[in-house]
Specification:
25% of the residues lie in helices and 27% in strands. By secondary structure, the protein is of the alpha/beta class.
């Protein structure tokens, strides 16, 4: 399991790129290339797409991934809490994370290369959801029926069962008077958390071994054929000022929080009737430490195999991170979903991540955790950071597939906080659409197509399990 020191070095300090990129050196001011598929964005979505497509094609025809920040220090996947769960209300979201569960379990075999072993540190310690309303309890019951019908081992607990539970009752022993129901998965059931940095690196390294190219640069200009409305070329500005022009058959927008800006660039001179409803929204994560209480008369801290626990109505969550390098202390990770009035669009620039609003921890997270878990009465914030969600402003669900006005532009955007856990299934889905003439092969994810935003389309698709 990743240690706090390892995570802090990754996410807070300046970090080096994890693997090789193809650095183009040219005596010309412009270099012209021909590729089948150009993927813009080398984060977990772009890397997953490259891996799955390269696996299907075994290196031919060509696949190139363009990434402007090869340190990935501000990538959403690098700054993620790394959770994976099946506790959703939409069949397709559940299916995607079931695929992700199986992928993570076999990641060592799937993503290890001749030079690097892949260890995503998948900790199947489960999820525990609490709700404090009758509406929430009824939603949990409906969700549970669907989840179990799809093969998920998710169980419900009434308030009195939660208090008496040998797994949770010892540490979750504070004020539970308002809890109406809990939903949980047992250890080993495929819910839990993992190392998102290792997953992204694994996708990238294996994709390279299978023949994909990763290029350092920023896509800055596109050319669109006015007759077919297809992207014909994309110019990429490299760090040293050279430009590569890629003539393309397909383009994938995997730009995460900056997907809308990339979409506008790719549209070139087209006047699109339907813009991409994805914006950067900032989320903060805090690490805190507690002394490990060993005396029998003291309330125990949540153990190392505690599930990722979410108070759904408050939006507060926490999970263990492991033992600190400081002896006798335990480390926990936590965060909160901001209220709608405070959840505003950002510009998506790195400087915005340097400001973390500690009042959310002091005024919301800690009081709520202490109310439920008395052992958290004494704690110390050890570290913190912020990252961006690629937030779908319409229905907070994925946007997958070709844009209706640019048929060779594929979207893998708008996951609104669920991207890392859904990246294996999403990357495979886009690869299948490209490889099989816009037909899904493994999971039918057409519910997430862009067409739902068009007047007369199926309409928005809402998830009752958004956190």
């Amino acid at each position: 399991m990743p240690t706090l020191r390892r995570i802090c070095l990754r996410r807070i300090n300046k970090i080096q790129k994890p693997t090789r990129f193809l650095a183009t050196v040219s005596n010309k001011s412009e270099d012209v290339r021909h590729v089948d598929t150009l993927i813009i964005g080398g984060g977990v979505m772009g890397a997953s797409t490259a891996y799955h497509l390269a696996q299907m094609r075994l290196g031919s025809p060509s696949i190139t991934v363009v990434e402007r920040d090869v340190s990935y220090q501000n990538a959403s996947s690098s700054l993620s809490a790394g959770g994976i769960r099946q506790q959703f209300s939409l069949k397709e979201n559940i299916q995607m994370t079931l695929y992700g569960r199986d992928f993570l379990r076999d990641a060592h075999n799937l993503l290890s290369t001749s030079e690097h072993e892949c260890d995503v540190s998948f900790q199947e310690h489960g999820y525990l959801f609490l709700t404090s309303s009758e509406k929430g309890a009824q939603q949990m019951k409906a969700n549970n029926q669907l989840q179990r019908s799809l093969g998920c081992d998710i169980r419900l607990l009434a308030p009195e069962e939660l208090r008496a539970s040998p797994c949770y009752g010892s540490w979750l022993c504070g004020d539970l008077s308002d809890v109406t129901m809990a939903s949980y998965s047992q250890s080993g059931g495929g819910e839990g958390y993992f190392d998102p940095w290792a997953l992204r690196c694994g996708f990238q390294r294996k994709a390279i071994e299978l023949g994909a190219n990763f290029v350092s640069g920023e896509a800055v200009r596109a050319t669109v054929d006015p007759k077919t409305s297809t992207v014909t070329s994309v110019q990429v500005l490299q760090p040293h000022g050279n430009t590569i022009t890629y003539h393309v058959k397909n383009v994938v927008n995997a730009a995460g929080p900056l997907a809308s800006k990339v979409m506008d660039m790719l549209a070139a001179d087209l006047s699109l009737e339907n813009s991409l409803p994805v914006r950067p929204r900032k989320r903060s994560i805090f690490f805190f430490q507690c002394h490990d209480n060993q005396q029998a008369d003291e309330i125990p801290l949540p153990p190392f195999d505690t599930p990722l626990t979410i108070d759904a109505d408050a939006g507060v969550y926490f999970r263990p991170e492991g033992k600190s390098f400081l002896s006798g202390k335990r480390i926990y990770l936590c965060g909160v979903s901001p209220p709608p009035e405070d959840d505003i669009d950002c510009d998506g620039v790195a400087d915005e991540l340097q400001v973390v609003h500690h009042e959310s921890f002091e005024n919301v997270i800690w009081p709520h955790l202490y109310r439920r878990i008395p052992a958290f009465g004494s704690l110390k914030v050890h570290s913190f950071w912020a990252g961006f969600y690629d937030y779908n402003t319409v229905d907070q669900n994925a946007i997958l597939g070709a844009h209706p006005e640019i048929p060779n532009l594929y979207l893998i955007n708008g996951f609104s906080g669920h991207g890392v856990q859904q990246s294996p299934a999403a990357g495979r889905a886009i690869a299948e659409l490209i490889q099989h003439n816009d037909q899904y092969q493994t999971l039918d994810l057409s519910i997430f197509s862009f067409d739902r935003f068009i007047p007369g389309g199926r309409g928005a698709v809402f998830e009752a399990g958004i956190v």
